[in-house]
Amino acid sequence: MTYRPGHRLDIEFAVMGAKTIRRRAGVYWWSTETPHGAATVAFRSRDGMVRADGWGPGTDWAFSRLPALLGADDDPDGFRPEHRLLRRLVDRFDAVRIGATGRWYEALATSVIGQRVVRADASASREKLSRHHGTPTPVGPANPFPTPAAILRLSDHELHRMGIERSRARVLRIAATHADRLERLAEVPGPTADAWLRRLPGIGPWSAGLTTAVAGGDADAVPVGDLHMPRFITHALTGIEGGDDEMLDALEPYAGHRQRVVRLVKAAGRGPARHRPDPFRYDISRI
Fold this sequence. Notes:
The protein is built from 14 helices and 5 strands. The protein is an alpha+beta fold.
């Protein structure tokens, strides 16, 4: 497939936070379970064109989602930040459009795995699940994330070996059980989807915010409850450190575009000095 966007494009910004997309040597690999089966799509941008190659029975569906994945449905025109740091960061990217994967179950399940653990451990658990229980793919760096049926077949012991303890395993199964209803959230506005997600046991504002941003392309989603982001965002925007309340106050002037600001600050890659030790890590899969 060859796609010429009708807008400026920055793939790195558009797909930021999507755990089913990996970058290797300048090529983005998207492995996903579609309504028609597994698909792996490799794509890259050159001279204003996006070239994509696909494998698997779900390739046509994945190709149809590619424009939305690259931010075609997003409208950043009203985003005119006056903050000097944000203006500088906007210039760093070719565009600040937010993409939408359209895969709500995968976005929620992968965020659940990241609850209460450090990024490296969450990433390791996702990789193990995809490698051992995802639909095998002939190409690419990883299999798709396991289907809801595959997750529901796994025992607590098997998930424990993936580094996922019983409490997160319970929430992961809840996501799998509601997978069909989750996909219907594509038809509702971001705030409505966020409220519905929070009604699920074990799903709070952090997981809901990550899910609506990645699956639905919600440009206003804020993952409240993160360990580090409130400090980073308040420091970047105000010069002082703060918690969730201070972060929300600092983001208020950017209502409608708060996810855009969150991504810009994450891309800055710098923040206040650490005042606490790194979280304790332990590999429960060896217990």
